[in-house]
Amino acid sequence: MARSMWRGAIQFGLVTIPVKLYLATEGTSIGFNLLHASCLNRIQMKVYCPYHDEVIPRSETVRGYEWSKGKYVVVSDEDIDSVPLKTMRAIEIEMFVNVDRDNAGTQFVKQAYYLEPEQIGAKAFYLLKSVLGEQGKTAICKIVLKDREQLAALNPFSKTMLLTTLHWPDEVRATDELSLPEDEIEIKASEKKMAEQLVASMTGDFSADDYHDDYRQALMAVIEKKVAGEKPEPAARAEPTNITDLMAALEASVAAARQDRREGKADVKAEAADAKAEAKAPAKRRRKTA
Amino acid sequence: MPGDQLDLSIPTTPGVSRLPARVAPMQATAGVAPFDDPDYLFEPWWPGVRALAWAEGGRLIRLQAEGMADALTAFAELADELPERLMADAVILDGWLLALDEGGWLDTSLLRRRLAGDRHAGRPGFVASDLLWSDGSAWARRSFARRRQHLESILLDGDRCVVSHALRGEGTLLAEALARFGLDALSARRLDARYRAGSAGEAWLRVPIAPAASTERPRLALIQRLPLPDD
């Protein structure tokens, strides 16, 4: 597995369990680079100062916090290092909560990490894991990751435990802005029964393996074709087509019919023979009545 | 092209139309079977409503459709597009009102709903096949070949308005293509005939097409000229 991204210890009362953290997920979105269209070279983002009207090196930049409109205070690396944090290098368990979907906003997750116990703390690690699992509890903890104190939930997962960083309550938006019905929606017993039946019929075990990012796969296929030098076909769009497309389709249909004739398909031959006979017939006979 | 449009200043007296109020449309004669004849221009018998369109002063002023009192309201989108696409003024076109579904295919049930007053049913289209008046003068006495040529030169294909695709001489080939397309008749117009009010005689035939072995409705893939998936 990849290198651990964090090394520290779970602090649980007086117990310290040294662990490593690994990212549990990876971004698989396809990255693009911006190129100059005429020469296909990578473009560069220059850092530009409009006051001095010049491009400046990144080393000449500092962090600024806008405390009032247009007013900044500079925050240096030293300032950031000096922030007193108890949770440095520790996963500090604050409390345990029941595993319950309504509990404490644990739904607002950011990122999942796998834990790997150092050998010396393995026993305590698995003791904690088994207690959490048997009692159906989640450990709520704090950890400093990437210069930021994070709220996290610790749960048993497979042969290890999963640390899931959570959004702080002030990062979670209220639902007030949504237009939700004020009154309780009236639901008839029969409707509810029908919905329950539908849910029951679609209930199963979730297996993430059954799901794929189709868009990514399709985009990758397009890119691979281009790499191989093939011109990608435009995919069938669901967007409405217009009447000129209809004419184009008709033209294509005529071309296909012509092609079939050239290839001399049997039934077409017969038809063409009929047509010849018809063409030789006097014009009058083409009409039923005058 | 909008630039060209701006040059179309119309030396008319305001309020006085250079076009007749009504025109008796030419009516096709029933044909027997598809044929080949270099004197004829073949095009699909579009499964729509036959309509004459009056455009004057940069506006679509009248849509005279079979059995419809107010086609202009029902096909309001055309009023926006057709005059924009016309490179001539004081024009009467002969053609078909159609309704397309989301896939761009002809849909007669959507057309019926639109004719019944549902202004949101499908997307409307106008396929022009003939020309009666242009720049305020009557073209009916000129040959269809000239009328059609002029029509092609003054109507630019748009999202909703096009000149009908047509084939000269090769009626049986078009019939084969249309059978796959799911259409059941073709239109055959004599290139040297003038536009006649009422019965067309030899000048215009509606020729039925024997249905193809496969009557499968063309899918979106065909409309967009893509290979069909192997399902």
Describe the 3D structure.
The complex is a heterodimer of chains A (about 290) and B (about 230). Chain A has helices at about 75-80, 120-135, 190-200, 215-225, 245-265, 265-280; strands at about 5-10, 15-25, 45-50, 55, 65-70, 70-75, 90-100, 110-115, 135-145, 150-155, 160-165. Chain A is of the alpha+beta class. Among the domains of chain A are: about 5-25 and about 85-170, Ku70, Chain: A, Domain 2, CATH 2.40.290; about 245-280. Chain A has a 7-stranded mixed beta barrel with strand order 1-2-8-11-10-9-7. A two-stranded antiparallel sheet of chain A has the order 3-4. In chain A, strand 9 and strand 10 (about 150-155) form a beta hairpin. Chain B is α+β, with helices and mostly antiparallel strands and about 230 residues long. Chain B has 2 domains: about 25-45 and about 165-215, Dna Ligase, domain 1, CATH 3.30.1490.70; about 50-165, D-amino Acid Aminotransferase, Chain A, domain 1 (2-Layer Sandwich), CATH 3.30.470.30. Chain B has helices at about 1-5, 70-75, 75-85, 110-115, 145-155, 170-180, 220-225, and strands at about 25, 30, 35-45, 50-55, 60-65, 90-100, 125-135, 135-140, 160-165, 165-170, 185-190, 200, 205-210. In chain B, the strands form 3 sheets. In chain B, strands 4, 5, 6, 7, 8 and 9 form a 6-stranded mixed β-sheet that branches. A 5-stranded mixed β-sheet of chain B has the order 2-13-11-3-10. Chain B has a two-stranded parallel sheet with strand order 1-12. Chain B is globular and about 45 Å long. Chains A and B meet through helix 5 and helix 6 of A and strand 2, strand 7, helix 6 and helix 7 of B.
